Amino acid sequence: MIAAELVSLSQILPRFHSVAEQVTGTNPASFLQKAKRPQSQDAYILSYFKIFSSHDADPSDIKSLRGLLHVGMVCAGYPDDLEEISTTPHGLRMLAAPPSRNAGAILFAGDVEQWSGAIQSASRDQWRASVREWAAACYAQFAKHNLKELLDVDPPKKVNGYLTYE
Questions:
Q1: Is the CB of residue 112 less than 8 Å from the CB of residue 151?
Q2: What is the pLDDT at residue 155?
Q3: Domain coordinates of the chain in residue numbers?
Q4: Residues 50, 6, 91: CA angle, nearest 5 degrees
Q5: What are phi and psi of 73, to 5 degrees?
Q6: For position 125, what pLDDT does the model report?
Q7: Is 130 within 8 Å of 104 (Cβ atoms)?
Q8: How confident is the model at residue 163 (pLDDT cuts 50, 70, 90)?
Q9: Element (H or E) spanning 157, and its range?
Q10: Cys-Cys link to 46, which of 21, 61, 65, 134 (CB 3.0-4.6 A)?
Q11: Nearest to residue 118, comparing CAs of 75, 79, 85?
Q12: What strands, in cross-sheet order, belong to the sheet with 70-77?
């Protein structure tokens, strides 16, 4: 069994808003209060960037900026399963913790564009069940944080009680 938990996201520093206002004449935070927003407050950083680049742009249409949002996720499971996942080509950065209690943990990190490709690739039938389970667990974290709209991945389907991709 693979468990995943989203543990880090890009952060925008408060100074961004004042610098953006000095340079463009518009405070992105003030503008976003009056405009249509993304589903997830965690994705507001991309809306601020969208407003910074164009005051006429729809700040809820942020999918094209997903490469600017960095996500870190800790995944835990049996060491053999994690080894299989870590050797599967996914393009994410990894940092492993020392194994303990017969379990291992790896921090996977990348931008949302990389995560989208990794989840889509890992969901293919050619991979072992543990790799597909990892993809489903990671997708579930994006869904839990209302960030799945940024992924180009279909949600996993349940077959006989197990998450799978078809």
A1: yes
A2: 75
A3: 3-7+71-164, 10-67
A4: 75
A5: -140, 130
A6: 79
A7: no
A8: low
A9: strand 157-159
A10: 65
A11: 85
A12: 3-9, 70-77, 103-111, 93-100
Place of tokens 């060491």: 79
> Model pTM?
0.87
Looking at residue 36, its pLDDT comes to 87
CA–CA distance, 71 with 158 (Å, rounded to integer): 26
Tokens of 75: 């995944």
* Eight-class DSSP state of 35: S
Residues 107 and 89: their CA atoms lie apart, in Å, by 15
First to last CA, the chain: 20
- What does DSSP say about strands 70-77 and 93-100: parallel, antiparallel, or unpaired? unpaired
Angle of CA points 127, 132, 135, to nearest 5°: 130
The 8 Å CB, 24+ separation contacts for 91-99 are 91/117, 91/118, 92/118
Q: pLDDT tens digit string along 68-117? A: 999 999 999 999 999 999 998 899 999 999 888 889 999 999 999 999 99
Q: Which residues contact 8 (CB under 8 A, 6 or more apart)?
A: 70, 71, 72, 109
- pLDDT reading at 164 higher than 80: no
DSSP string across 2-17: -EEEEEEE----THHH
Residue type (1 letter), 165: Y
